[in-house]
Amino acid sequence: MTLRNNDTQALRLRKKTVQRFSFILNLIGAGAVTTLGLDSINVKCILRRSGREHILFHENLLLLAIESMYYSAIEHALQKTVVTLANGTHVMLPLLVDLGYPVNLLGDDELTLEVTTKTGWMGTYDAASSSLEVEDREAIGVETVIPMIKSRSISATHSRVTESLGDNVTSITLVNTEPTRGNTTADTVFESLIISSDKYSASDNRGRLLSRRASQFENVANAALRRENFRYVPAVELDEVELTIELNGANVAATKNYIVYRTYVTTREVLQRAAALNSKHANQNEAKLEASL
User: Cβ atoms within 10 A of the Cβ of 168, count?
Assistant: First the structure.
């Protein structure tokens, strides 16, 4: 589906397996310096199943793209302060939002992706010609959980934040969306991270945050492209998660810093359907075997 300014559309999906969504920005230059306003694009994903609604995520596109594409350093491209294009020049910026797990849409299941744009999301690009293309990416796999992406906003000037994230937490990402935030000591937002849970606890000071992030990439230069964005991925999902963050309050601006975490729920129905699909696939594979002589 194609969206422009002040537009709302919904992608409704049934009888397929879905895990990722593609957001392609088709931008036409208007000869001006511009900054994209992807935080003004609202995206909501709803799974309707057996008379219930599950909100898989409901966030702005900037936050979702930075979190989903953390390992691609997409925030570096998204947050460029200035992008100048001559009149009529075309640039395409592909973004991806990944649920992390496949969702099997069977029977009457319906997954709806609602996207709303506001005036100015494409900055000073040509509003009449620029557009946002949204598509689902069909996946292969058996659903064992219902995945969710959630966030908590950090209020301006706060120097300490404590949050309860609940159960089944599979990752935690500290996100800063300021386009001018750099890598110097003066740019520091996140000072330390303390996690406690039923299975595991961790305490990272600033140095440990930086070294943990460096270990996630092939070199320090690539890790530094994430600027004030950090990710913690436990070896197993965590329950009863309590999170405490120390911040440099002077650098904490309103609506620019977030805790984004991934979690899931599961039900007896999900597990029964997964067992049935696995059995079906096993029978199909067995039927392909050559008869023993």
Answer: 17
Q: Which of 5-14, 226-235, 252-261, 271-280 has the lowest mean pLDDT?
A: 271-280
144-273: CATH class: mainly beta
Q: CATH 2.60.120.20: which residues of the chain? A: 144-273
Residue 266: closest CA among 134, 158, 170: 170
Contact 159, 121 (CB under 8 A): no
Asked if 18 contacts 103 with a C-beta cutoff of 8 angstroms, the reply is yes
Compute, in degrees rounded to 10, the torsion defined by CA atoms 69, 39, 192, 168. -60
The structure's pTM equals: 0.90
